[in-house]
Amino acid sequence: MKRIGVPTEIITAMRGDPSWPARAAVAHTLVYESLFPGTLEADQLSAIVTPTLVVASAASGDPIQSWARGLAEALRNGSFRVLKGMWHGVPPEVLAPVLTEFFIGH
Asked: Where are the alpha helices (DSSP H) in the chain?
C-alpha cells in the first residue's frame, strides 16, 4: 500500500479494521490496478464520449493526482479537479457544489 502512496498513518488505522485481512490478501494487486491507463487502453478511453469529472483530493498528492489528471486527459470529454480534502476523500460540503456545477453544465 505504501507503493501506491497510502500514508503510513492510514495504513496503521486500516490494520485495526476487521476488513484488514481481506485488504492485505489483495494488496499485491494494488500496484497493477493503479497503473494508468489500467485495464483500458488510451484509445478505449478516448472512445468514451460521456462527460466525465475526475476528482482528486489536494492531500492525495502524486501519484494519485497524476493518475487522475491522465485519466481525464485520455477521456474525450473528461475534466479534472483537485478539491480540498483528506488523502483519499473529499468532504461532502466540498464535493457537492462541484458535482452540482458539473451536472448542471452537462
From this structure: 8-15, 20-26, 30-33, 42-46, 64-74, 92-105
- 50 neighbors 23 (Cβ within 8 angstroms): no
pTM (whole model) above 0.70:
no
Q: What does the pLDDT look like over 64-99, one tens digit per residue?
A: 888 889 899 999 999 999 999 887 788 999 999 999
CB 87 within 8 A of CB 60: yes
List of residues 6+ apart from 98 with CB closer than 8 A = 53, 55, 81, 83
Cβ count within 10 A of residue 93: 8
